[in-house]
Batch of 3 targets.
Target 1
Amino acid sequence: MKLGLKNNEVVIVPYDKEWKDEFNKAKTEIIQYTNLKPSQIEHVGSTSIEGIQAKPVIDILIGVDSLTTLDKAFFKNLQNAEFYKLKVERPNEIVCAKFTDETFEIKTHFIHIVEFKKEKWNQMLFFRDYLNTNQDIKELYENLKVSFFNTSLKGINSYTDYKEQFVQSVFEQMKSK
């Protein structure tokens, strides 16, 4: 299993069942260095959706009581587990990453820190679970991801924007449940 992408690189690779093991290894390390409980750490993103192609990066969801009360010690503990806070600005989310080495060029894991059991937490888990239990939707999503490479678009922001309407349509399904 090869993990990692350079900054702004977009590549998808065939599903690898070792992604689940890699998530569990990272979860164990995060628990070891922080006071987080196992229930606060979930595998999300395309590597958590069985059988589909994905960027070779493990996405981890961490739920906390409040983003505003996280202190330097919390992020120092994550650094001890080799996760570094990024300067990425996202509403109601803090992003951290793990890299292959000290050059910080290739990211292998992302942590998405959100408020536990609030809207963003629920959306990310719903998306994963909905795709894992709906084969037709899973295939539509994979085909959409593959079709990105047939466009003239480049970079991670374009890739994310390209998928956004689909992602929002899945979130709409959550409202009807």
Note: Residues 156-175 form the longest helix (20 residues).
Target 2
Amino acid sequence: MPTAVIGHITRERYEQFIGADRELVGQMQRIQFTIGDHALEIEPMQPNGGAHPAAGEDLGGVDASLQVYADDLGLSLSTVRNYRFAAHRWPGERRRHGVSHKVHCILASIPDDTERFETIAAPPLDERAKVRRWTTDLAKKHVGQRPDHPETVPQKVAAIHRLADDDEVAAQVATDVLRRPAVAAKVVADDTARHMVNKAQTTQHKTEVVHDLIEDDTVAAQVASDVLRRPEVASRVVADDTARHAVNRAQTDRSQQQADAFRRQTPAGRAVRKIERTEEFLDLVGACHRFVSACGKTVPQLRDRHLSDDERAVLAQNVARCRVVLDWIETAAETGEVDMDEELARILRGE
């Protein structure tokens, strides 16, 4: 059933247009063939079809004559040449009324005269309109040319390839279509396409993928251990201040953990710990001795010295700090507790 509306007009109004417009197309066809006939008369086709000039004749002269004719008509040389070729391929009695000049031009590429004349007389079925007729797409399809409106998958793919010949256009199209899960699934199933995508990934993209895979600390540690065995990787890592400091800190912590375990778990370690404790005791006694000795030398020098208010204030602060430290030493010696509270830490920092 024909549609009741075509575009923005009714079917009835459309039928009023089409009859007159078909007559206009017929007039256009006659005009185009007439121009072709005149161009053919100006420069007849060569016996071999015009691919090469005839003996003693310059092909450039043919184009020169046709260029003059085209310029006088306001047409391009290629248009006049196409009209001339169509007129040659379709003698007057073989031209089909109701078939556009464009279809005649397309079917003119059929080299055999008999086949060409029989073909135009037997139009194919237009599936869209459900009638037998020639359209430019059906004519192109018949002679193996690309249709203006592709219908099959290969035709659509070929049309997209033509439009995506520019790399930027192709990249944008690929980005857009790969956002469809079904399309992405089909693409990664193609080994070549998948490998090309993987190869084209930037360092940033690859880093993002790796980060997603190593969220687990155990996995991250194993990967880091493996890749740091490569000298080039290790040299790049130590060039990063943050990474290098983290590695150094981890080494220090590990060494301390190993030393603590050695002291706790082995007889030699316990002996070393005892020696270290003796050294620590001697260090503390030495610190007290140096303090007393320094004070014994310095305090007598204050004889007849009158300190200013600011100097007395500074000295009082430092004496208070010394008293707090002495109390801390006594507490540590009596209880073994060496932890300091916030107030003590603040005083030791000089705050």
Note: Residues 206-258 form one domain.
Target 3
Amino acid sequence: MTKISILGCGWLGFPLAKTLLKKGISINGSTTSENKLSILKDAGINPFLVSVESEGISENIDTFLAKSEILIIDIPPKLRAVDPGSEKKAFVEKIKNLIPFIEKSTVKKVLFVSSTSVYGDDNGLLTEENNPNPETESGKQLLLAENLLLENQNFETTILRFGGLISEDRHPIKFLAGKENIENPDAPVNLIHQIDCIGIIEEIINQSKWNEVFNAVAPFHPTRAEYYTSKAIEMDLALPKFSSQHSDIKKVISSEKIERTLQYKFILEEY
């Protein structure tokens, strides 16, 4: 039986683990919350309390990785909480601390959940062939972390760059409804539904697509004003009001590679 370790059983990692369990895969799942250990266990996941920090990693990491063939890393940078005067490479240091434990474990394949923020606000149609140009601190650190994993010869790594994450219980319009003077009304949306996030990861594992970099964004790019206005009407929410100033941001993330390589069909009706 294949065993997979999922580092970070949160918004994506937990439902992903439950989906993989249905395929007969044994799952080690980590959380930083003791209260969540029982939730993971009740779902059939082998629960581990693992904390990955820039100063070091909790001693449970060895047993968490034990006998796993694949490691899925799904921990957010959380750099907004970093004080201006503190260490700016906190997330990169976490990945640096994690790598030696991967190297000495049974893990031979790593899937790293990254973000399209590594492209910054570059305009036009962006594919995996474009050189990343991150502007935010989280984007910069994600790119550094990607490279650390890709360059390591002890295991194979696939990078999965997700666009804006949405689901039935997590949709941006719920935060934008009724707000005024929202910026970038003409900017295209680059979103992906939780169902597609899970489906794409399943296909990467099923088809053994390693040593790859994939963009994962639904091929559905109306403007922000068009999309969020229609969603507000659909959900009977107060209409968002956008700035009258037109923006120059015309970034469209291409998922053509993932559609072609994995033969994956996005679930557009869910958006």
Note: The mean pLDDT is 92.
